[in-house]
Amino acid sequence: MRAPDLIYTSYPLPHLSLLVLLLEPLIWAAPLTAHATGSYRCPKECSCLDTFVDCSHRKLQRVPDRLPRWTEILDLSHNRIDMVEESFFRGLDQLSSLDLSGNRIEYISSSVFEHTPRLSSFVARKNRLFSIPLGLETLRLERLDLRSNRVTNVSVSDISRICMAKHVDLSRNDIHYFPPVAYAAPCRTTKLDLAHNKLFHLPATSFSIFRHLNALRLSKNRIESIERNAFHGLNYLSSIDLSRNRLNSIRTMTFTTLVSLETLSFHRNPLTTLDDGAFWGLDKLKILNISHNHLTKVAEGWLYGLTFLDKLDLSHNQISQLDSSVWSYTTHLQYLMLNNNRLRRLRSRSFNGLKELKYLQISNNDLDSIDANATFGLSALEELDLSSNRMAFCIEDELALQHVYLPQLKVLKFTNNRIRNIPIRAFYNFPNLKVLDLSDNPISTIMEGAFDPLQLEELYINTKFLICDCKMEWFAIWILDFSELSRNVHAFCAYPDKLRGFEVNDVKLESFVCEHKSPQVIINTHPTSVPNGLMGGEAMLECAGEGAPPLAVYWQAYHNGRSRVIGQDMTTIIHSKSSKDVNGTHEYIYSKLFLKDLVKDDDGAYYQCLIQNHYGTGYSQHALLNVREKPRILNKPNHVVLLPGQNAHFTCSATGIPKPTIKWKKDNGYDFPAAHERRLHLHVEHDDDILYITNVSLADAGVYTCQATNEAGHISESASLTVLESTFGELLDDRTVALDENVTLDCTVNASPMPRIQWLHNGTLLDLNSTRVSTERNLQLLLISQLNENDQGSYTCQIVVGNEVISTKTVHLRVETKPPPRTHYDLDNICTILALTLFAILIIGSFVILVIMFVCCVKDRR
């Protein structure tokens, strides 16, 4: 059974009425023959065809009475009905489609749906409903359309009602909140349209109940924020439309649970920030639309995880540059739209990694520069749109596209780029090009062979500025030979005056004549290369040309794959002068570019002179300016004094442009005794060149020179190697001396030339001003008188050359204290002493006894 809207569309109302009139006898007979007895006839306000009852556009204020029981499709749209009562639908148990669109309905009785158990399509758009009708939960609708009503709130119970419909359209209402449903319930909805409402926030699990949802439309709301897990549980969702909202940023992992999502749109939001990993987890995403936002750059971080992305629309943003690494995660991208941004330059490898890209649109930017290798990696590109930029030089300058090779390109759109001249083989790097659009360019000259070796199928040119002289005759013949191309070529002459306004197809071949002086710009003097400009010096480039006035000249430089127009400043001076012929119809111009205080990074480049008039631009040959810098020694070698057997090394580093090479000399020659004995080694460490000599001998002594050389000059620095023939005297050894005695330490050195000697006591320089310390023979002898305990310890003799100690010897001095004098006793004296001692003990003992007896007697008398 066909849906009501399709049937209504297929049979316009006048034709349908005529058909019903012709078949009226059969229609009135139908209930009696095809339907059960007692069925109602077709209402007089409506027209009927089979089981379709069409009551639309009748200005009805209520539902007709006694609708036929056999009605399956009922169209009551575009009337003035304001209420739907259940009595109108009694007995319509066969009804499958009901259309109430375009009425004034504010209320629908819940009992209506009790009488329509087979209803599968319910359309009530463009009414005045303030809520979702009750009773829908009893049906299994395929379509529920409540678009353009006045629904403001959606309750949890409302969600249970709409869940019974597969396709739900609640767009263009006033819904400001869509509640998350915490409990699990069966839900049949596969498509939900909430566009053009007033939603401002999407909380977590907002749509979790719609587990079978396939498409979700949320465009034209007021959404400012989306919580993480807002789309949790939507494992079958393949499409989300969030366009025309108020999103400023997308947080990390916002969509991570949408494992089946294939299409995502943020069209017309004020997005400025996309966090790294914003789309992580969208492994199946194929189409991402972020057009008409405020993004300023394309970042590798927010593209992370979009491995199978097929189409990316970044048009109408504020993107100003593309880095070579941003596409590393989107290697399967086939369609990329970057039109209407702020790109001024395509850097080298701007599309690196996009080996499967087929369509690239960069129109309506401000591009005026393409670096060498800017299109590197676009080997599969089939269509390129560079329209409405400032890229005339890419076509006019024969060298501009020499690094741009697109073997599979079939369609090139280069409209509105101010192209005036098309040189020979301008598109030879696009061998498979079939469609070339050069419309809306003021083309004045097309050189013979401009489209070789192409086999074009479509060519678009419209210009009113052609110079129709003898150089254009070939084009008129070529157009005639390829008539299938001529239908889109509208080229009119502007010169000479007699052919002005004529289309080139209409000009006779004998009329293409070259005059003595062509208005086209001709370069007569090309700038000459300067191979050896010096850093800090000066350089001058000259250029001259002629053509129809007025002529303008300017210079540009091409450096590191990028072109730039040269402006005047303190170190850059452009002087130009011009003159005209007697008639004032031809002008000659001369220009000089003077560069002062040359700097490598700023001035070393290819230079080109451009002379322009109304008929096009003349491009000079490229002149190379090499800025050289004379070598400068950064790390000078130092003088070295050593003893035989020690190791010597000299270090030298230099800078300059180009980087200088370093060579070593000995005594102004290349004879190194150490080299013959394989004791000389050269080593580069960091930027230093190091000369090593091991186990030096007297033959190695001399002057060693570091010489740095490049194309701008050379410079050298020298240092001497002095080898001392030296030994310490044998008298310098460890000593043990008594207290208050004198000591002499001998550090005799046999060396030539004689070095300086210094003494250390216990690691500290010895104080030679002490009255007990004296030296002789240039400090070779150290004398210390009246030794005390503080004088003992280590004494070091050092041989010093300059500030470097080249040899040392240490001895230890021990100071001993004198033993006390010894006393000698003979045996007689010992005996005498013992006798006297015994006698003294007897006398003392007798005295003690007498005292004790006296004390006892005194006690007894008492």
TrEMBL record:
The keyword Transmembrane applies. Gene3D superfamilies: Immunoglobulins, Ribonuclease Inhibitor. It comes from the Eukaryota. The chain crosses the membrane at residues 833-858. The keyword Transferase does not apply. Residues 1-29 form the signal peptide. PROSITE patterns: IG_LIKE, LRR. Residues 519-626, 631-722, 741-807 form the Ig-like domain. CDD domains: Ig. GO terms for cellular component: extracellular space. Pfam families: I-set, LRR_8, LRRNT. PANTHER family: AGAP008170-PA, INSULIN-LIKE GROWTH FACTOR-BINDING PROTEIN COMPLEX ACID LABILE SUBUNIT. Coiled coil: none annotated. This is Ig-like domain-containing protein. Keywords: Disulfide bond, Glycoprotein, Immunoglobulin domain, Leucine-rich repeat, Membrane, Repeat, Signal, Transmembrane, Transmembrane helix.
